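Our consortium's second objective concerns turning raw sequence data into structural hypotheses that experimental partners can test. To show how far this objective has progressed, the report includes one record in full. It was chosen at random from the queue rather than selected for favorable results. The single chain below, 455 residues long, was entered without modification.
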Amino acid sequence: MVKKKDQVTVTIESLSFPKRGKGMVEGMPLTVKGVLPGQTVRCAITKKREGRLEGRLLEILERAPYEQAPLCSQFDLCGGCTYQTISMEQENALKEQQVLELLQQAGVTGFTYEGITASRVQKGYRNKCEFSFGDNGAEGRLSLGMRRRNSFYEVVTLKKDCSLVDDDFVDIIHANRDFFEEKNIPFYHKGRHDGVLRHLVVRKGHYTGEILLNLVTSSQWGFSLEEWKEKMLSLPLKGNIVSLFHTVNDSVADVVKSDESTLLYGQEYFTDRLFDLSFRITPFSFFQTNTRGAEQLYQMVKNYVGEGNHTVLFDLYCGTGTISQVMARQCKKVYGIELVAEAVEAAKENAAQNGIDNCTFLAGDVLELVDQLEEKPDVIIVDPPRDGIHPKAIGKIIAFGAPKIVYVSCKPSSLARDLAVFQENGYGVKRLQLMNQFGHTEHIETVVELIRVEK
C-alpha cells in the first residue's frame, strides 16, 4: 500500500489546469505538477487523502512520443518555462482543453467558443522579469535569475538561449551577479530571513528599448549604490537604461514590495507603446508583460466591446490605463479604477500625453470605489488580478446592471468561479476567446463577453 513519502513510477494520462498531470497508482488517482501526458515519471508522494494522491516530480524517466528537443539548454533546471518540448499547436490544444474543462466543471455553458490565438512573438517576448537572488545549489555560487524547478531556494542564472527574455536581460543579470559576487554581498535567505540581495526587476520597452532597473535589497545593504549605478550605466546594451531604482524590502514574504524606493538615476518611468498610444510605466505599475501579445489581446477586447461612441465604459483594475485609453475612441466616457496610486497618476499622465480627455482615473480598491461611480455604465471591463474579483465586489459590479461585461482573465480557475456567479445573477456568457500570450509557459489569457439577460 502506497503511503506518504514513498517514491512511485507513474504514466501520465491527462493534464488539468494548471499543469497538473493525472495518472493512477495502485488504483488511486495521482496528480503531479510539471509533466505532460504520455510521460513516465518518478515522483515522491506528498499527500494522501480520501483515496487520492499528490506527488512531487523527481525525474522524467520516459518522454512522451510527441516531445521535441527543448529550446533552452537549461529547460530541465529552470522553472521559468513549462512547454518547451511540444509544438505551439500542441501547447494551444492543451491550454484549450484545460480551460474548457474548468468552465464545464463550473457549470459555465451556452457560449460560443471562438478559438485560441497564439502571440505573434514566441521568443524573448517578456518586457518585465522579477529575477531572484540565491545560490545554484551544490557549488553555492551566487545566482540571479529564475527559481530552479522543484526547489525553494536554488536559482538558475539565465543564458543567452533563454526563450523568455532578450539578450539585454541576460547581460544585465550576469553583470549584477558578477558585481555582487566580487564584493561578497550575500543573498537574502528566505528560510533564515537574513542577508541582503533579494530581487532585480528588469523592465524594457518593446518598441522604445527603454530600460528600467529596480534593485531590491534588505535594509542591511552596505555597499556603494553609486558604484552599482555606474556599473549598470557602463553596460553595452542594445537598449537604453533610463531609470535606476533601489528598493528596500524587509518583509519576510518572498515578493517584490517596497518599504522605501529611491530613484538613483534618470526618470521615474520608462515608456512603451500599444497601437499608436504611448505609456509611461512606473516601477510598480501593471503593464502587460508581452507588448505585442497585449495588442492582440486588446484587439479581442475592442471587438467584444463593439462600436458605440455614446457608450459609458467602466474599466476596473485598470493599471496604467492601457485598456481605458485603447477603448476611449469608441466610447463617450471611460472611468478607470486601480489600487496602485502611482499607476493611476501614470494613467492620468498617459491620457494627457495621448490627447485623450474622456478618461477619468480613480485610485483605490474596486470594492470601495464602485460605490462612488454615479453614472450607469453601458459596458464594464474587468481585468482583475490572478485571484479574480473579490466576492463582495462582484455583487456591486452586478448591481450596476450593465448590458455588457467583458471579462479579461489571466487565471482560468478564478474565471470559472466568477463566471458561475455572473450566470447565477442575470448574465449569460455569450462568447469566449483564448489568447496564448505567454508561449512555453502554463499561462493563458481569456476574454469573455457577458450579456445581461432580460427578465
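The partners drew two points from this record. The chain has nine helices and 23 strands. The domain at 7-62 is CATH 2.40.50.140 (OB fold (Dihydrolipoamide Acetyltransferase, E2P)). Both points have been shared with the crystallography group to help prioritize constructs.
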